What we know:
The chain has 382 residues and is α/β, with parallel strands linked by helices. Helices cover 50% and strands 8% of the residues.
Amino acid sequence: MDSTAPAxxxxxxxxxxxxxxxxxxxxxxxLAIDTESNSLHAYQERVCLIQVSTLxxxxxxxxxxxxxxxxxxxxxxxxxxxxxxxxxxxxVACLKRDFGFEIVNLFDTRLALRTLGMQPSxxxxxxxxxxxxxxxxxxxxxxxxxxxLPPAQLEYARFDTxxxxxxxxxxxxxxxxxxxxxxxxxxxxxxxxxxxxxxNGGPEGFWGMTHARKLEPRQAAALRELxxxxxxxxxxxxxxxxxxxxxxxxxxxxxxQPQVAEELGDVPDLAPRLAERYAEPILAALARxxxxxxxxxxAAEPVDPDVLARYDQLRRWRKAVAGERGVESDIVLPREILxxxxxxxxxxxxxxxxxxxxxxxxxxxxxxxVLASLWGAPASTE
Length: 382
């Protein structure tokens, strides 16, 4: 940690405290924001802490206390207040899912670094490089739903946002010097509007497991029943499904399909303690799988060969541009935009414009080159 100890963070867990703090933010230009959830400790994760830093200090807002989070919505939606995150996708998805927040005027320091051609990893590494700060990583996998949170855990939480505003200012200067400010701002706005709340897979979620589509029909039926049993058990225990039994063990059970408890010991990836604890429900699920109709894998959406050929041309063009700039390909254009263009097959800039309406900087910078990559000729403006 740095040698200059900041003032203790403000803990907010009552409606009156939250209202007073929000009222003091009307003239705030920027808020640094992070969240902590309990995804490793509960069946249905939820946001357990919202960290906010301003130039005046650090605040820890408790969604599990007595204050509703709804009054925060206008701050998140205000275009006059920049919301600074590092690696915003997960936080934005959680805030949308739990509170319905829409994030307007977002600045993602990780996305800014990537726009500059840097390859950041975690925030701790970035802060060590930029500020010489060493963050305590002990609480990365902590259960943030527990109360009260120990003082050391509160300190860990507050430093996730404490340096973000200073980092933001350094990156803004670098982006302006590189002529990439508008590009980064556009990418941040696109991220804010395209991240959606995560949704559980439901009864057909087992198809998303690695190698599930390689199973024989009867094995797939077994996996479906095992997956449903695990989900129900995890819900009852209020634990993440992987903490009941892992995907590898479920797949091995579906392949081997033991019929008696003594055979469970021969199943790869199934720990003896789990075989003993869950022998009865596992064998019951496998029996249901043997008598149930085999499930059909979700049909893959057919792709027109011409569309696929155009997408491949665009992807090669994007990779070449990214290589010249020293950035990752999605910084040039997001994958979903490439597919939209490939499907629509625009021949002119006016036809391309609505497909890239959410990315006007990139339309101006790359529009003619996009069309040339498709048709091998200069773009028409008509």
